[in-house]
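Methods — Computational structure assignment.
A single polypeptide chain was analysed. Its primary sequence is given first, followed by the predicted tertiary structure written as structure tokens.
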Amino acid sequence: AAGNAYHCYASPQELDEMRAAQKAAGKPMRYDGRWRDRDAKDAPAGIKPVVRLKAPQTGQTVINDAVQGEVTVENAQLDDMILLRADGTPTYMLAVVVDDHDTGVTHVIRGDDHLNNAFRQLQIIRAMGWPEPVYAHIPLIHGPDGAKLSKRHGALGVDAYRDMGFLPAALRNYLLRLGWGHGDDEIISTEQAIEWFDLAGVGRSASRFDVAKLTNLNAHYLRETPDAELLPLVIPRIEEKIGSKVADAGRERIVCGLNGVKPRARTLVELADSLAFYARAGAPPIADDKALGVLTPDARAVMAKLAPALETQASNWSEKAIEEAVRKFAEANGLKLGQVAQPLRVALTGSTASPGIFEVLAVLGPTESKVRLLAAAG
């Protein structure tokens, strides 16, 4: 009724000829407004019209973007876009504007690759006489090479980062800091983010997604997360790794050994890998050839001797007392500590890398330690 739209009866052939002529003349290819002011009485037979916006042809369309600032386009650069196709279905531009209006959207916050769409959408809003939303076009996330983050960079969904062992709070913190800041604060809790965030703090430049930085941040969150919250997250991963449910005794060992592993773990996957040997009962599987190579016949003989020597320590099974006992054993048998500690580590954990070996002994307890030593001794 306001006269801000009109029927266009241009046939596909006419539009193709129009574009070809514009291209040949080196002009931008856009609709030339041939039905903008024509009477529908002139409509050719057999052509179903589209509905086009009667956009302003002079002046500028200006957006006061909450992130990008004032952004302007010359109206002469925009043609009369199609609002309704010939079959009566709406185009994306019309549909998104109507949907936002009908659902009461007040802020349109999206990637800056949609900024060009905003000019056309704002023209529709103004033609309808509707309140204008606040536009905020935020910078995109780029890969390490500076190009837009994509599958080529291994861009993954949130569920993939969960499977990789990243904590939700760490991922939220990291994504929040990509393009937004609050002074020098690097660690920002979800509660602080809700309190502090505003669009004024969002920068205009693209940020680069760095998995190494995310991993380091995740390590901080792992260290700070209470054990009671970590256990439900790590136990299922351990069970998947060992292929069975964790028994009560294994759970107790995991609880006791968690603090010794947390400082070195960067993800839940690493945490589960480091704790898995506590979950199993009996001899752990040997991790690799390097670990297997440590258990030479001489080393196995040392384990056979060490088992009864440690059994005498069962009544005082503390980390300090165990260390003293192992050192005395090495000295009494003319061995360096490493000649005892390395095969001991493999016998107890199945690996050449683990938490401190005396800590491991203390957590496993005298009975489980003896079982594993005798299994390694053969």
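Note: The chain has four domains: 5-138, 151-223, 225-279, 289-377.
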